[in-house]
Amino acid sequence: MLEVVYVVAKRSLNPDSGTQGTVRISPKWKRTAALYVHFSQPWSHLCDYSTQAEEDMFLYESRGIPIPQREQRNGFQLGKQWMDINVAMWKEGIAEGTSLRREFYEDPNYPHWWLDKVLRE
Q1: pLDDT by residue (tens digit) across 51-84?
Q2: Which residue, 14, 16, 34, 15, is CA-closest to 25?
Q3: Residues of 30-62 as b/e, b for ≥16 C-beta within 10 angstroms?
Q4: Does the global pTM surpass 0.90?
Q5: Contact, 54 vs 47, CB < 8 A?
Q6: Are strands 47-48 and 8-11 parallel, antiparallel or unpaired?
Q7: 6-50 pLDDT, tens per residue?
């Protein structure tokens, strides 16, 4: 089962100012971030799941701030990409009749609130 941990991250929102701002990562986003981690697990040894990586992804999705390039790949960003690819394939399979919507709801790795959102007709 996916584990969700809530944090408040600090970041300089204006690099020129030298002041620290507080970025509040919403609980709703944190639930989705747990799914990003799930979908990037095959590459977890290559990924960064630090608080900074999480904050970078949150700021990218909520404010459009580009994710800085670092030595390790942002695991949340990679997970989002693979999640989107998987959902697209699932939808194709459902449309073609090769997959049943019920199959995804039977998998304990995928919360029903999320499946309701991504597999709605």
Answers
A1: 999 999 999 999 999 999 988 999 999 999 999 9
A2: 34
A3: eebbbbbbebbeeeeeebbbeeebbbbbbbbbe
A4: no
A5: no
A6: unpaired
A7: 444 444 454 443 335 678 899 999 999 999 999 999 999 999 999
